[in-house]
Amino acid sequence: MKTVGIIGASGYSGEILVELLAGHPKAKLAVVASRTHAGKRVDSILSRLSGLTGDLEFTKANPKALAKEEVDIWFLALPHGVAAEYALPLVEAGRLVIDLSADFRLNSDETYTTYYGQKHPVAEWLQKVPYVLPEFTQPGWKKADLIACPGCYPTSILLPLLPLVREKLLTGEGIIVNALSGVSGAGKKESVFYSFCERTDSVLAYGLGQHRHLSEIEEQLGMAARQAVQVQFTPHLVPMMRGIASTIVAPFEGAVDEIYASWEKAYGKKQGIRLLPSGTAPDTRDVLGRNRADFSGYVDSRTGNLIITSAIDNLMKGASGQAVQIMNLRMGWPEFAGLV
Amino acid sequence: MKTVGIIGASGYSGEILVELLAGHPKAKLAVVASRTHAGKRVDSILSRLSGLTGDLEFTKANPKALAKEEVDIWFLALPHGVAAEYALPLVEAGRLVIDLSADFRLNSDETYTTYYGQKHPVAEWLQKVPYVLPEFTQPGWKKADLIACPGCYPTSILLPLLPLVREKLLTGEGIIVNALSGVSGAGKKESVFYSFCERTDSVLAYGLGQHRHLSEIEEQLGMAARQAVQVQFTPHLVPMMRGIASTIVAPFEGAVDEIYASWEKAYGKKQGIRLLPSGTAPDTRDVLGRNRADFSGYVDSRTGNLIITSAIDNLMKGASGQAVQIMNLRMGWPEFAGLV
Amino acid sequence: MKTVGIIGASGYSGEILVELLAGHPKAKLAVVASRTHAGKRVDSILSRLSGLTGDLEFTKANPKALAKEEVDIWFLALPHGVAAEYALPLVEAGRLVIDLSADFRLNSDETYTTYYGQKHPVAEWLQKVPYVLPEFTQPGWKKADLIACPGCYPTSILLPLLPLVREKLLTGEGIIVNALSGVSGAGKKESVFYSFCERTDSVLAYGLGQHRHLSEIEEQLGMAARQAVQVQFTPHLVPMMRGIASTIVAPFEGAVDEIYASWEKAYGKKQGIRLLPSGTAPDTRDVLGRNRADFSGYVDSRTGNLIITSAIDNLMKGASGQAVQIMNLRMGWPEFAGLV
Amino acid sequence: MKTVGIIGASGYSGEILVELLAGHPKAKLAVVASRTHAGKRVDSILSRLSGLTGDLEFTKANPKALAKEEVDIWFLALPHGVAAEYALPLVEAGRLVIDLSADFRLNSDETYTTYYGQKHPVAEWLQKVPYVLPEFTQPGWKKADLIACPGCYPTSILLPLLPLVREKLLTGEGIIVNALSGVSGAGKKESVFYSFCERTDSVLAYGLGQHRHLSEIEEQLGMAARQAVQVQFTPHLVPMMRGIASTIVAPFEGAVDEIYASWEKAYGKKQGIRLLPSGTAPDTRDVLGRNRADFSGYVDSRTGNLIITSAIDNLMKGASGQAVQIMNLRMGWPEFAGLV
Predict the structure, then answer these.
(1) Is C202 on the interface with A (CB under 8 A)?
(2) CA dihedral A223, A225, A226, A228 (to 10 degrees)
(3) Model confidence pLDDT, tens digit, residues D294-306
(4) Which residue, B2, B248, C11, D255, is most buried by CB atoms nearer than 10 A?
(5) pLDDT tens for residues D88-104?
(6) Between 2.60.40.1120, 3.40.50.720, 3.10.450.50, 3.40.605.10, what CATH number should domain C2-150+318-331 receive?
(7) Could you report the predicted ipTM of this complex, rounded to two decimals?
């Protein structure tokens, strides 16, 4: 039994993380720190979790004080820019830190500056911290003390694409991604734009050509392909709370069997991946609450394109579920302990 | 004042058509025929329209009998395959027929057979019946007695694309369209798949590579481009009732100003089109109940692509509103009489 | 043709008011004043209305300056407490003022203080300003220069109840009302509570025993009954944008025909009221966009209760539609000019 | 470890039951029988559960054959009228049967006939089968071999009311209940009425005065009160998938503390009950996926009424979660084994 802590639990992925860790068979949730709710009972804010967190109260989110807590594993569910501040003192204190923010996802300092509009506070760390997609990343990461969890859109896009670009089934050119996200992807927001009345009956694209997750998608694809890869990525908001559906189009002249063979080889019987038959498309409803990516491929011989459709729950496989999966593997526990 | 009639008013676009025609300043809604509701009051079935249709009852949907009704203009809101049966007797009886179905949208008999899986019953008519996007189609159609209204997805996609392929700003190669439709696009359905519980919290792609509207999109683009155009079209269902958002990606090396100049030239001050500034994307909420297509273009110089985002209300500009607009123009009435 | 103006058009009922007045056959929308958007084009904020408001820009919301505008009729879509400030200078300048706020709905200064938590700024006006439910209120109000429009919940509740308490079919005792409102009833809000993620999949009661609309409901019922009437009113939020459904239970030993006879007598062929058969219940979907209240009555002989179910569109019959209906009647125009 | 089976798993509560039992620490899900899907893999139909049910296939739903299966505990998630057919052979074969249908909920044959419109097939069983609300029912039921699980509406209504009528805090007169249910309450339906387009943006009452669950509510209240109790029950459909919110009004002249004292005494620290502070109302969102009823009481001293607001997840505490809780208690396992 290890003790675990969460910093920044008042958002949607924080809530799911509390829920998963409170029910985890190998971990005991000992500390939940919050920058805004210190002193309140956790279940007074995360009301749905009542009964799961006992008398646990939010602790102050002071990096130095938290480094002294008897917590073996920390999860950071903080905004980018903030997470780095917390991560380093905890790592220095010998803790394992699993970061759900974007702060350590990129290798390139320059890319970080371009996409996040600020210098990285500890750029020298960027290359050291592994970015872990547990089904794909080579096992070397399992010794790291600070681990970057992928973003939600990237998880849905990289899982199907990485094996294909690694094996050169796709050249890496002409990849067009349209992704549709439920509103929780934007976090818990005080704003008219994210209000019920504005988002219901509404679909729209946003972040044309410059969504931050693009940096992460291209960097990972480039590393797998061993050459630069460019992606045209257009995210959209759709009127549901949870779920991401990504539709990927890329030139491909081969047979769809080659695609499936590559996926089978990469993922075999992995519990976090479900391959659907060619010609069908996954439904976000089918992955709700599951730590799983569903995807399928279809070759349109008329146009010479491969069409991949992919679905995840952005709060599970796209965030908190995957973070717990990473912890499980890092600790040598069953991969899906505490997960479904 | 002309008398108008509708055949097939029990679906969603039929309902909107009844609503628009019941309030039209130049047309009097005299007959509403239904294959299932004959003898019932119209507002007993279309309950929201109570008070708008007076005592009007559904008439039997008998093509020959309807041809004898004193109705100047008929709208067909019928499934494909069925509409053709009704259209010809009415045209032969000297009526103007505006068909919302897919029966006369294509020019090519062969394409019809491929996409609709059956021989066209009156293939010789296909080339004679104009397909009318009122903002784009050359005015020659205004003498036709049988007019095909575009489909909902095609309207959202063709309006922005047609001027660009006509002027060769786009070569017609590499066009990738992802479109997201509200559930009413599928019609009024008795099925578990279209039930509330299955469609809420759900997004999924469907019809991979072979949606019927693709035939119409490619044929129209090909005619405007004066060469064959291939489109990779992937439709998606999203959890809202009304609205279509289309995101179009195509290779383009020029400046976005050229795109806007082409649109300005083609559409000028047309009331049915709203150009949004480059970098923004239209919201389906903003076109709800409006007979208008909103769209914008963005050139991603990094990738060499043009990204067009477009939104319509599938039941208005994508169906019934556009049908009324076509009637207005055909009759020489103000283009937006009875429309907003 | 009269000129009309709106003060406070950035909320949801303001938007519908702009839409209705921009399309009104007898009124010309000349001024739209806003406390936050002065200087911007109306359709840059109310984007769905693009094309309907031409070049019209928001004017500054300065009461004195507005009183000098050449506007015949003003609509106030302002928060309570604010509306009174604007109303008096406009009335003094000889304008007709139709107030959608709660500022002049009550007769009793004391009740206002209790429910609104502040002294009324011009309490001496309270008794002079008529509260107008156009289907029920005696025609004396048609000379007033300042008119109070009913609230949304009260409209759905009072229309069915007023004739029954006036005629003593109901004693006025034991009236229990549960009402369910779409989220737009709360206005356009910057808050986590009203965010999409919090309000979807959520139903909850609120304002137990003390919702402000209760004061208005009880005062009007008391006046019709000529004795004090107490109501147990519990409002609920439900996950939709528009619509209110109210379910009213009251002891009643008679036959349901007496109830319908009373309604027929009070409302006859009124276009704003639709009586549904006993045993059925209205659906908020059927009144969307309509300036109409649908209701029905059912006598449960087993329990000795009358159950009334009622539905309106809170933004139409519950706010802006009814305000336009009031203008129409006050000006001697057709009651439903510009309305459906 | 006991083996468990489910008959009738293709609906929404069946799906949740499969999910809960597949992850249960003390029970092994051995058989899932279906009247329509025999021979198919369970996760080909319940796609969200992929990975949880291994290779398990639906078995034929033949009562006699199922009685021979080596299954210790059966759950029936069948329509009323059908469940009885299956229950008896299984009980006779010495199995424990937990029935989620309405077939054994009532004591009175006559009431069954009135509300269900048919003679009960084995009326002599009605009095023998315990109706179990695990937090309230006296422990005598723990020896039964056939147990009736309460309906969803009744669970939300009875849990707060039963202690109060038992202790005569409420007289049992004048109880008015309005309840709002998500659409899954109606099951998986092939019908236009339950389609997404019809149920979104829609709220309506139904089953005025005669909903079947009323029989169960009144019978249980009557037994607790030791006198007949009449309830005015009006259910409503609201546009969400899961969740029930009930608002109960009853005459009460005492202090709210007496109500809370009664609840504390009856429920103490029960994990399936959460008492909220007086003046607040539970949100269905807070019980999503939880086997818990949240409720609170408010005394309106002005009107002399107690207002109880209550929320459950209709598929969890209102159906499958409660059924698993019943199994746990019946088997002497931890009450919340496999539940949250």
Answers:
(1) no
(2) -80
(3) 999 999 999 999 9
(4) B248
(5) 999 999 999 999 999 99
(6) 3.40.50.720
(7) 0.96
